[in-house]
Amino acid sequence: MKKNEFVTLCLKIMGLYFILMGIINLPHLLSCLTETQISRWDFFVSPLLFFICGIILFCKATSFTRSIVNVDTDKESDIQFEPSDNTIRTALQVMGFYILAQGIPGFCQILANAALYYYEVSSIPRYLQQQQQHFIYLAGPTAQIFLGLWLIIGSRRIMYYIRLLRHD
């Protein structure tokens, strides 16, 4: 693997991460698009920007690589990059902990907001009450929690499939 190929790979992985962040926030985007009046435009902008940036980064990674790495590809030697299976499994688990650490606080915050709303709903006049749809906001953090747990607990199974793909 050459330096420019390695940088392209890293940029594509980062692009996939941004696309994933856009998909995780997709319920917010859909709820803003289906409402008759957009009251929270920040929920609309954030997922859209994550998604657009991820697609641009993934599709234009080679163009960005040319501006980052300025090497002559004919004279360039290969990078010796063969991580062991244990290193890859550890990296998957660390990534799982990272994703899990991002999902749990959001999940707990939404649950606390929902509990507080239903606790205080009796003090709100009947004509001002509205139906709360907290499940829309729980979809993203729940997906993060499940993905993080899968990467932590299922890293051996993932490594099994990676080994199968590597030997083909």
How does this model look, in words?
The chain has 168 residues and is an all-alpha fold. The chain has 2 domains: 1-79; 83-168. It has 7 helices and no strands. The protein has helices at residues 3-24, 26-34, 41-59, 61-68, 85-120, 134-153, 155-167. Helix 1 (3-24) runs antiparallel to helix 3 (41-59), helix 2 crosses helix 3 and helix 5 (85-120) packs across helix 7 (155-167). The chain starts with a helix and ends with a helix. The mean pLDDT is 76.
Which keywords apply here?
7 helices, elongated, 168 residues, 2 domains, mainly alpha
Number of strands: 0
Instruction: Estimate what percentage of residues fall within beta strands.
Output: under 5%
Low-confidence regions: none
Query: What class, by secondary structure content?
Result: mainly alpha
Number of domains: 2
- From N to C, what is the helix and strand string? HHHHHHH
Query: Helical residue percent?
Result: over 70%
Main sheet properties: none
Query: Mean pLDDT score, rounded?
Result: 76
Distance between the terminal alpha carbons, to the nearest Å? 18 Å
Number of helices: 7
